[in-house]
Structures are given as structure tokens and as C-alpha cells.
Amino acid sequence: MRIVLLGAPGSGKGTQAQFIENQYHLPKISTGEILRKIANSDSLLNQKIQHFMRNGKLISDEIVIQLVRNRISKSDCKLGFILDGFPRTITQAQMIEQEKIIINYIFEFEIPKEIIFERIQGRRIDLTSGKIYHLKNEKCSINNILSKRTDDNKKTIKKRLIEYEKFTIPLIKYFKKYTKTKNFEYHTIDGSKDINSIRKNIFRILKSNI
């Protein structure tokens, strides 16, 4: 199975990607995670990425396409993969077609902006395990070393949402227009529901087609 997860920052697609990965043993490919790893290195590419991320802007298509192409060429992606947050633009979607990468499912997560702000501003990352917690909804051990991402602030979130509406909303319309001719299933998910309800809904869709 080759799955694409679309949604604004904080819509919950990363959490659901983890559930799908564990259930179906598919590698989760998050462009955000790849970029953050590179951002910790001392390179020219790191400087470019830092500039984009500090200003809440999408990374250029050229950089993202190169990173995704390299990742899906690895052996663990032969039986399928989960693309978390890619493609984000029509150009990136067209790249998938040009590379003849088959996509089976696209899940779009819809969620009100006020919930997005609440989720992201309360989000914390365990520096040891990499697990994401939320201060309001989850409890963690006193041994957890939690950190807030530098771009998880109100100003940057607003910029990221503007970028999302500018580039990804047209992409969603593009996908919906070509759903029948491209032979993939397109499903809209209510991202405001509780995590387990969303997980069960996605699993039900995937299981019905196996």
C-alpha cells in the first residue's frame, strides 16, 4: 500500500501515520522529520532549510523532491510506504506522476484553525524517545525530557497556515479532480475527532480493500 496523508500542521496526520506504520509495517516518510535531521547537520543545505523553517515557509519543491526520491528508493519501501506531508504542492504531485510512483490512498485531515493553535502550542517532544506529547491531554513520566520546537509558536503557526492554504488547498482540489482517472481512493477525515476514532475509521477503509 502506498498512502498519502494531507492536512494542515497540527491536524493529526503524523499521529495517524504512526498507527498505520505499526499496523501494516510500512515505513513512514515524513518530510518534516527528514528536514529536521538535516537541520542538525553543518551543511549548506542546512542553512537553506533553517531559513525556510524560521520563517514558517514551505521548503522549496526542488529540495523536497530530491529528499523524497532518495528515501523511497530504499529497499524498505518496495512493498509500500506512508507519505506524511508530501506532496504539498501541485508541482510535487506532478513529480510523483513523472516518477511513475503509484499511490493507492489519499487521506485528507480537516480541522478548525482554533484546534490547530491549541494542539501545536501545547505540543512537546521527548528528547530521548522522540515521542510527541500534549500538555493538556497526556501524562508523562518525570523522567521524560520534554522540549518545545522553536517553530511551535503562534506567529510561525499563522505563517504555516497561510502557506498551507496557498499551496496545499489547490493541491487538494487537483487530487479530487483526478480521483477517478488516477486510480487512487480519496478520503476526507474529520481531524477534530478523538485519536482512536480516527484510527479505527482509517483502518476500516484500508481493511475493506485488502
From TrEMBL:
It comes from the Bacteria. The gene is adk. It is found in: Cytoplasm. Keywords: ATP-binding, Cytoplasm, Kinase, Nucleotide biosynthesis, Nucleotide-binding, Transferase. It catalyses: AMP + ATP = 2 ADP. Belongs to the adenylate kinase family. GO terms for cellular component: cytoplasm. It holds the Pfam family ADK. It is an enzyme of class 2 (transferase). Its main location: cytoplasm. ATP binds at G10, S11, G12, K13, G14, T15, R123, I132, Y133, K193. Residues 30-59 are annotated as: NMP. It comes from Buchnera aphidicola subsp. Schlechtendalia chinensis. Pathway: Purine metabolism; AMP biosynthesis via salvage pathway; AMP from ADP: step 1/1. Monomer. This is Adenylate kinase. AMP binds at T31, R36, K57, L58, I59, G85, F86, P87, R88, Q92, R149, R160. Consists of three domains, a large central CORE domain and two small peripheral domains, NMPbind and LID, which undergo movements during catalysis. The LID domain closes over the site of phosphoryl transfer upon ATP binding. Assembling and dissambling the active center during each catalytic cycle provides an effective means to prevent ATP hydrolysis. Catalyzes the reversible transfer of the terminal phosphate group between ATP and AMP. Plays an important role in cellular energy homeostasis and in adenine nucleotide metabolism. PROSITE patterns: ADENYLATE_KINASE. The keyword Cell membrane does not apply. One of its GO terms (molecular function) is AMP kinase activity. Its EC number is 2.7.4.3.
